[in-house]
Amino acid sequence: MQKLKAANLYRSELILVNGKLAERYNRCLEKLGFKPTKLKAFSIDGIGWSPEIAEEKKNVHYLNHGDANPHAIIITPLQKGKPVYVPNHSFDRDMMKHVFKTYAKEINDITRDCAICLDFDQEIDRFYEPLDILKYNTITISFSLINNLDKIQKEQLELVEEFKSGTNFIDENIHVKLLESAKKHGDLRNRVLSLEPLKFKAESFYSKAFGGIYVLRDFISPIVVFEDEEAHKQAIKDTIHDVLIYHISQKELIEKLSDHLIITCNLIKEVKTLRYQRIKKFMFFKELKNTEHPIKDILEDKVFTRRYLNTIDVNALKRVTGVEIYLERLERSNTYKIHDLVDINMYHALHKPHSSLSAKHQDLIWKLLVNIAPLDVLFLYWYDKEQFYKTYENWDPSFQDWVIEEISNNI
Hints:
Layout (H helix, E strand, L loop, with lengths): L1 H5 L8 E4 H13 L9 E4 L6 H7 L13 E4 L17 H19 L5 E6 L16 E8 L3 H16 L7 H14 L12 E4 L3 E3 L5 E4 L6 E4 L2 H7 L8 E4 L3 H9 L3 E2 L2 H4 L3 H14 L7 H6 L1 H8 L4 H17 L7 H4 L2 H6 L2 E2 L5 H14 L4 H7 L1 H8 L4 H12 L3
Parallel strand pairs: 9-10
Antiparallel strand pairs: 1-2, 3-4, 4-5, 5-6, 7-8, 8-9, 11-12
Helix pairs in contact: 5-6, 10-13, 17-18
């Protein structure tokens, strides 16, 4: 990952935490029912997740009490707008944006000397079966402070009112209590330390529960897509919910998404795009064997490209250039079918969200498409960084260089 880090493409927006902030973070962990970290310094993302603590605990989702009970921690206003590197849901970053948009001023004030624990409650204690995910509707985001500073504020305000009552202003005991509270906690009278719960509507989304589930319910018919085969097998036995159920590998899924005007593919237009060139080069890379030159040079230098295209067998060549072959023959006759000449994975990869979809829905569908056919390295990086990082480690070092350059040139 060193090359990615050097190019600022690997978790480059993490926030360093140490000293008092690390102490407050630990208090948040304890308040949420988790064991504190032994680390004195670590980094966090926008939701308060730390890669170092995840490694220490050997649990990527250490801020969760099961799939149905995720949490977040805010210890600094610098978390505003930061990425969520290991989201439980596709809407996690949107929830944090909602929190900071609503309570930016209060968060700035509270985190001067305190920290905030967040609970995302969808009124589900735990998932029992895969289609329980359909219960996701409105999520309540509730807040609590470490050290019960909001309750201490209430006690301080009650002392002030008691001081004002009658002749209590001469009562030395009340004087002492007020001074002790002020010395220990500061003057809390004019601070906003109580954050009312927020509501967040979960419409179509992706969840990591049950090995990964897409819920598409803003379209003609609700569609649920599973990444895990066992969860899919369990779900198709359901006779209660009126939804269409697919495994992500089923070819019928692409057809249904097209029929419902969720995705579209015009090969004549797509073949002229930079995205097509990236996908074609990735397909070419997968076919290369025993190369004498760096992969990066083979993909970028036309002379090398032509040379190595002539070293792969006919079937491999069809997989790489099948779209162009199909379109060329289509000009002569309309008897040719896409699936006769175009590799099925490449065809799936060349689909895109329908232009009628909102930006939020387009992002979700892009994520689904890059998981169906992860052939575009740039879009894989944009829409599923976790999968990108896992795949990246297995690539040829020279191909890694090409990928880094492609991504860097498009940011």
